[in-house]
């Protein structure tokens, strides 16, 4: 039999449902500008109906509020994090290559091409007047300018490697920081959802951290069932614990964090063996000593590693460009030295090198088999500090005007067989051109990736973001529903008042 107060209970359920929906709408509106917030909706369904006697049918009993759910698409989250990861890589790669371009500083009045041209011009002046000490002084000064420029380029590249090393350490620390926060949130979410609820706002905080982390390194999010929780594991996602992985290895397993560590290694393992420096470069491992597969890394961290350690054409980094600079310097110095050693100075000296490592004498250079000329150490020979020992003549007779060696050194400018790329100028142009192509590709990829990332995020926001127009519309809808339920209660009250207080009073 129908309860006398059934109508009250039915209207009351509608009143409470509308009130709760209004609370959620207000929460959405309040967080319209909150970064990472996902709009929420009240899930509700009709309550269990009551069967009427005699097969008359089922009588509705109102509405039940089931849960407060987020409007979120996990596939779009996955897609966004992948695109954001690629964006982090290309932005870091773009900035790094652009800085390498600024180190080479070509073409410019102070670049290596200019100082090399000025050195060749001084050889030309020497060929015109080989006995003139002023001209010889010009040759020495132009040679010093050339070596200083090369040394400076090397030092700047080495400094950039140190800066990148610091950035790698900072990025690893950031990853660990994100992991710690996510681990704490995992435990809070698990505890809040153990009774079947939804920790929506905590999940928003966690998702925002994962979004930001995805730009630094490629991460994969999985939720696994807690086999030790038989009760909770029967309720939707309750009883599931989140695992955050890098290359299939856990960074966060529920509330347990596996930290990364930047282990120091001697810089000579990253650069040439002759590199004499106290700089220590970082190699990334798990803090427990396990190996991290860095070749499978992506994101900003991978770009920093490629820039610092890249030696091949596919990952051109600082070691690659130092190697190119060394290749140029070694061959160029060898050619000049071979010719200069054949010539004679004003004092009849011969066999002297024009360039040596660290500015040592020719004899010291010959005595030390381990000493070779690089971009880091190229200097003018100690011997030609004496202007009279700069060789211009090919004969010990020192005939007046004999400048055949100076002319041969000048002809090196057009030696198309010096490098596989051609003459010295062609080599520099080839390096700069390839660097420019790589930089422009990184700029273009970063721009395209930015557009793609924003597009995917826009798709996410259309589902998860708060629309003020929609929320205001729903607010009015729930307001009317609330008022209607309240009016229903008033009507039921008036009807019961008639039954209780007025029936049987007529005629008394």
Automatic annotation (TrEMBL):
<comment type="similarity">
    <text>Belongs to the flagella basal body rod proteins family.</text>
</comment>
<dbReference type="GO" id="GO:0044780">
    <property type="term" value="P:bacterial-type flagellum assembly"/>
</dbReference>
<keyword id="KW-0966">Cell projection</keyword>
<dbReference type="Pfam" id="PF00460">
    <property type="entry name" value="Flg_bb_rod"/>
</dbReference>
<dbReference type="GO" id="GO:0009424">
    <property type="term" value="C:bacterial-type flagellum hook"/>
</dbReference>
<dbReference type="GO" id="GO:0005576">
    <property type="term" value="C:extracellular region"/>
</dbReference>
<protein>
    <recommendedName>
        <fullName>Flagellar hook-associated protein 1</fullName>
    </recommendedName>
</protein>
<feature type="domain" description="Flagellar basal-body/hook protein C-terminal">
    <location>
        <begin position="463"/>
        <end position="501"/>
    </location>
</feature>
<keyword id="KW-0282">Flagellum</keyword>
<dbReference type="InterPro" id="IPR001444">
    <property type="entry name" value="Flag_bb_rod_N"/>
</dbReference>
<dbReference type="Pfam" id="PF06429">
    <property type="entry name" value="Flg_bbr_C"/>
</dbReference>
<keyword id="KW-0964">Secreted</keyword>
<dbReference type="GO" id="GO:0005198">
    <property type="term" value="F:structural molecule activity"/>
</dbReference>
<keyword id="KW-0975">Bacterial flagellum</keyword>
<dbReference type="InterPro" id="IPR002371">
    <property type="entry name" value="FlgK"/>
</dbReference>
<feature type="domain" description="Flagellar hook-associated protein FlgK helical">
    <location>
        <begin position="100"/>
        <end position="355"/>
    </location>
</feature>
<dbReference type="InterPro" id="IPR053927">
    <property type="entry name" value="FlgK_helical"/>
</dbReference>
<dbReference type="InterPro" id="IPR010930">
    <property type="entry name" value="Flg_bb/hook_C_dom"/>
</dbReference>
<feature type="domain" description="Flagellar basal body rod protein N-terminal">
    <location>
        <begin position="8"/>
        <end position="38"/>
    </location>
</feature>
<keyword id="KW-0969">Cilium</keyword>
<dbReference type="Pfam" id="PF22638">
    <property type="entry name" value="FlgK_D1"/>
</dbReference>
């Amino acid at each position: 039999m129908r309860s006398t107060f059934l109508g009250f209970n039915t209207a009351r359920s509608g009143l409470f449902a509308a009130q709760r929906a209004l609370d959620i709408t207000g929460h959405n509106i309040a967080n319209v500008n909150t970064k990472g917030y996902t709009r929420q909706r009240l899930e509700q369904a009709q309550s269990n109906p009551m069967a009427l006697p005699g097969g008359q049918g089922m009588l509705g009993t109102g509405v039940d509020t089931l849960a407060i759910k987020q409007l979120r698409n996990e596939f779009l989250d996955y897609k966004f994090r992948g695109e954001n990861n690629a964006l982090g890589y290309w932005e870091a790669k773009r900035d790094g290559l652009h800085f390498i371009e600024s180190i080479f500083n070509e073409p410019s009045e102070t670049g290596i091409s200019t100082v090399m041209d000025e050195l060749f011009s001084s050889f030309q002046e020497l060929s015109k007047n080989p006995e003139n000490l002023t001209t010889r002084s010009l040759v020495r000064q132009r040679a010093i300018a050339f070596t200083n420029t090369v040394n400076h380029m090397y030092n700047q590249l080495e400094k950039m490697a140190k800066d990148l090393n610091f950035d790698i350490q900072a990025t690893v620390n950031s990853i660990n920081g994100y992991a710690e926060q996510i681990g704490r949130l995992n435990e809070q979410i698990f505890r809040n959802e153990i009774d079947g609820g939804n920790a929506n706002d905590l999940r928003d905080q966690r998702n925002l951290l994962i979004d930001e982390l995805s730009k630094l390194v490629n991460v994969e999010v999985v939720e696994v069932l807690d086999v030790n929780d038989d009760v909770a594991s029967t309720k939707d996602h309750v009883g599931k614990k989140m695992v955050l992985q890098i290359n299939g290895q856990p960074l966060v397993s529920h509330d347990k964090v596996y930290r990364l560590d930047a282990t120091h290694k001697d810089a000579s393992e990253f650069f040439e063996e002759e590199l004499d420096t106290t700089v220590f470069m970082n190699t990334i491992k798990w803090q427990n000593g396990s190996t991290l597969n860095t070749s499978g890394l992506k994101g900003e961290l991978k770009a920093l590693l490629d820039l610092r350690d890249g030696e091949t054409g596919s990952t051109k980094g600082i070691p690659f460009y130092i190697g190119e600079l060394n290749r140029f310097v070694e061959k160029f110095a060898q050619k000049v030295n071979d010719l200069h050693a054949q010539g004679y100075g004003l004092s009849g000296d011969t066999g002297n090198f024009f360039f040596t490592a660290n500015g040592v004498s020719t004899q010291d250079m010959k005595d030390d088999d381990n000493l070779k000329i690089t971009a880091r150490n190229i200097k003018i020979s100690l011997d030609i500090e004496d202007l009279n020992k700069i060789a211009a003549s090919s004969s010990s007779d020192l005939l007046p005007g004999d400048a055949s060696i100076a002319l041969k050194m000048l002809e090196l400018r057009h030696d198309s067989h010096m490098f596989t790329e051609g003459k010295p100028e062609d080599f520099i142009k080839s390096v700069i051109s390839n660097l420019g192509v790589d930089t422009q590709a990184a700029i273009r990829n970063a721009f395209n990736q930015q557009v793609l990332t924003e597009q995917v995020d826009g798709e996410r926001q259309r589902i998860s973001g708060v629309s003020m127009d929609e929320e205001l519309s729903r607010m009015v809808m729930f307001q009317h529903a609330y008022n209607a339920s309240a009016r229903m209660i008033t009507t039921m009250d008036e009807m019961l008042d008639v039954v209780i207080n007025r029936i049987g009073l007529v005629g008394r």
